[in-house]
Structure prediction request, 379 residues.
Amino acid sequence: MGKYQIIATAAMGLEALVAKEVRSLGYNCEVENSRVTYSGDESAIARSNLWLRTADRIKIKVGEFKAFTFDELFEKTKALPWEHFLPEDAEFPVIGKSVKSKLFSVSDCQAIVKKAVVERMKKHYKRNTWFEESGALYRIEVALLKDVATITIDASGSGLHKRGYRIDQGEAPLKETLAAALVMLTNWQADRPFIDPFCGSGTIPIEAAMIGQNIAPGFNREFVSEAWKWMPEKVWEEARMEAEDLAKYDQPLDIAGTDIDHRMVRIAEGNAVEAGFGDLIKFKQMQVRDISTSKDYGVIVGNPPYGERLGDKKAVEQMYREMGQAFSKLDTWSIYIMTSNEDFEQLYGKPATKKRKLFNGFIRTDLYQYWGKRPPRNE
Ligand SMILES: C[S@@+](CC[C@H](N)C(=O)[O-])C[C@H]1O[C@@H](n2cnc3c(N)ncnc32)[C@H](O)[C@@H]1O
Prediction:
């Protein structure tokens, strides 16, 4: 088994949640802006891909160094042990980004890294000719931040938010990783009722169901590193077997998604069937103002329209008011609403217990949290 520096990349604001997930997989980690770094073997790479709900992707760090000139970038990249990672037939495109660095021309940085890797590989594999690059994909990234180059290989392929269940979607679907983060931030437990009153394509209820039954979010998809020569098939088999063992398919769930738009309800139902929760999540067409329940100690998580588009504002403000009135009756419930509308608390009619800044893509939002009464201990 080898030892690798692993990076789980995270959307801004979700780093602490990703770190919590990494630690619960059993790896000590360091948290920085937009990434969580830890070391682990091949099984750590497989398990991270399969299990991390809130990370964007898993990368292997090949090296990190200061680079102020193209020469430095070339020599330091060439000095890295590429032959440990790339077989002779590897396909190895190079992508890049540069922030606050002397080397700002991303296309030049990419070309130089590519050339340096080729030089190193030519020497190691004793070749004078081109590499055909006909084998598995090892996508290299050179990321410059304040003149420090971090060179990684992507081990995920499609981003981890692509769980494979969203066959259709509405207008403003949440990224699955953010939906999972919202559910995790509520500390909801599977024995409590859960409602998403703005379910759209059903992302939040489906992520809640996966969390409730401890289903690995990557269980039904493939990862680019499954084709890598140094990631033995057995490692993946064992990681998938572990996920199968840990899944609690018998865990009963009380999860509902509602939406004003009946077309969204149909889409959410289709996605839930695809995710394997066809019978478990109840979807219904309903306006938020009509939500009522006799159940106690539930959790509501919602991503309503923000009213940012001209013309929507007044209707959205009225809807927030009605939501506040409807939810005021649910005093044992905890309510979490994510919106960019800065007047939310005033419209809803109550100051939040706590607010947490979150980014929905590039939109800065707050997660307004209204904590309900705690369930009695001996119940
Ligand atoms: C931002 S989208 C939610 C997206 C969803 N989280 C997803 O991942 O697909 C907001 C949803 O709220 C619904 N909606 C708008 N007004 C509503 C209301 N008054 N009551 C219930 N749902 C409403 C819209 O139909 C839309 O599907």
